[in-house]
Backbone:
């Protein structure tokens, strides 16, 4: 219920206001002076939305009391009442944080509409705080689920480095949760209240990636009709997350290295330098040390990034965590689809624990969402899994076993294709097999 505290030493007026406001559906507390009001706030402050306060009180001044109330209870709104209009008092009251300042008698008809507006502001602030809390929890270390030893070691490293300004390099296969870790590190840092800016370096060609990263001035190139901030500038005082940094072109790597060393950069089409104070977190699914040896990545940039490396294990290295993740995503998607009390069949869990998960957590998440959508009897069973899972499950050879040769071969082919960005000719060369053989295997493993 909406709650108001009335502070006034005139008993008749206070009781009258109380009856009027109560009749409008508010719960009302009363106090006759500053001391009793502060005691009431100390006891009920979490439940009070608005304070209606007289300016002249036996033991203090309402204008000064506003400042004290707002400092201790910033979520409350305070409306001041005065018998005589006084412009300096009104100005000071607003400066002290009062919602409004009205004259008794002349403005009585304004009290209820004013209370409603104050309540609306309080409710909006509460919603914003609730959303901020939800977002904070979503991106905090609390959102990272796992109990396997390798995974917990990675989490502990991330927690240790988070409060520092040190660049972080996250390594691991695609889908292992590198961006989730980057968010958590940001949220646990002193930069948490500032921007977290993410960029996937594999999503753009060189020219677009450069303009996204550095920004540009109007007229820098055809189509640049106005100035645009780059992500380096957007990340000022915050965190810049560069995903798939191994895909960044060599020319841009040199420019990024300079930014990391000087905190300065030049926008496209500009003649003067700009500055940005950001913390860098980079991620890659490649072996950057090998990339440096093959002259595909600058060794000086690699050593600049690799100050603090955290490797995220694949899901098949975290078998103990699979059931935890199944439960977590089942609960998440059951809420989303309005399905309650979903039971998870033991055979369903065992089947997923034996799968090699080339797509890691991202693939598991998609499988669970699909299963929750398909279930009609509030139970996740093998029947709700894709056909390939069920076919493999019925095989006497247990082809889902991570030790099965065909599964290992399929996984290796996927990794090589990922490494070559889907270039099948290059993949066949690296695998040391003919192109026709590769196409046959792609068809056999349903990878085409």
Residues:
């Amino acid at each position: 219920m909406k709650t108001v505290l009335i502070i006034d030493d005139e008993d008749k007026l206070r009781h009258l206001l109380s009856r009027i406001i109560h009749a409008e559906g508010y719960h009302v507390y009363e106090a006759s002076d500053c001391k009793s009001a502060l005691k009431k706030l100390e006891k009920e402050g979490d439940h009070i939305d608005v304070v209606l306060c007289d300016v002249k009180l036996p033991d203090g001044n309402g204008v000064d009391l506003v400042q004290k109330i707002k400092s201790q209870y910033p979520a409350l709104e305070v409306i001041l009442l005065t018998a005589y209009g006084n412009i300096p008092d009104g100005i000071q009251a607003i400066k002290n944080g009062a919602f409004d300042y009205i004259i008794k008698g002349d403005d009585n008809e304004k009290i209820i509409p004013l209370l409603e507006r104050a309540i609306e502001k309080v409710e909006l602030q509460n919603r914003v705080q609730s959303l901020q809390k939800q977002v904070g929890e979503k991106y905090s270390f609390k959102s990272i689920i796992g109990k396997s030893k390798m995974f917990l070691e990675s989490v502990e490293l991330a927690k240790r480095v988070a409060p520092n300004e040190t660049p972080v390099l996250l390594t691991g296969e695609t889908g292992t949760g590198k961006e989730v870790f980057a968010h958590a590190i940001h949220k646990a840092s002193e930069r948490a209240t500032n921007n977290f800016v993410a960029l996937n370096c594999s999503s753009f060609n060189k020219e677009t990636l450069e303009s996204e990263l550095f920004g540009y001035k109007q007229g820098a190139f055809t189509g640049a009709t106005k100035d645009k901030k780059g992500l380096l500038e957007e990340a000022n005082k915050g965190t810049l997350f560069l995903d798939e940094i191994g895909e960044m072109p060599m020319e841009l790597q040199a420019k990024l290295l300079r930014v990391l060393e000087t905190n300065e950069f030049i926008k496209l089409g500009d003649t003067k330098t700009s500055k940005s104070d950001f913390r860098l977190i980079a991620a890659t699914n490649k072996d950057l040390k090998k990339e440096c040896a093959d002259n595909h990545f600058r060794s000086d940039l690699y050593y600049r990034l690799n100050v603090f490396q955290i490797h995220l294990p694949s899901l098949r290295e975290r078998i103990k965590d699979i059931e935890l993740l199944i439960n977590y995503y089942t609960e998440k998607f059951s809420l989303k689809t309005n399905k309650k009390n979903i039971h998870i069949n033991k055979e369903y869990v065992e089947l997923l624990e034996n799968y090699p998960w080339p797509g890691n957590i991202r693939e598991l998440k998609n499988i669970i969402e699909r299963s929750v959508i398909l279930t009609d009897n509030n139970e996740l069973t093998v029947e709700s899994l894709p056909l390939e899972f069920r076919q493999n499950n019925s095989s006497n050879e247990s082809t889902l076993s991570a030790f099965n040769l065909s599964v290992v071969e399929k996984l290796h082919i996927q990794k090589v294709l990922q490494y070559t960005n889907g270039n099948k000719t290059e993949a066949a060369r690296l695998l040391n097999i003919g192109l026709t053989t590769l196409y046959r295997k792609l068809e056999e493993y349903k990878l085409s």
